[in-house]
Amino acid sequence: MRRGLLSWDEAEVPADVLDARVEKLRAAMSAARMDALLLYNNFPRPAAVSWLTHFIPYWSQGVLVLPARGAPEYFVSLSKRVAGWIDETSHIGGIVSTPRPGVDLAKRLEGSKRVGVLELNRLPGGIAHPLLAGLPGVELVDATDMYCAVRHPADATEVAISRKAATLARDCLDGAYEHSEYTQTGPLTAAIEGPARLAGAEEVIVEFAADLAENTVLRRLDGTFDLGDTYALRISLAYKGHWIRIGRTYGTERLDEWVAGSLTAILDGETVPGLGTPGVTLEACMGSAPLTAVQALPNGAVGAASLTLSVGGETHLVGIPVLNEDGTVAPLI
Question: Please, where in the chain does CATH 3.90.230.10 lie?
Answer without folding.
Answer: 156-331
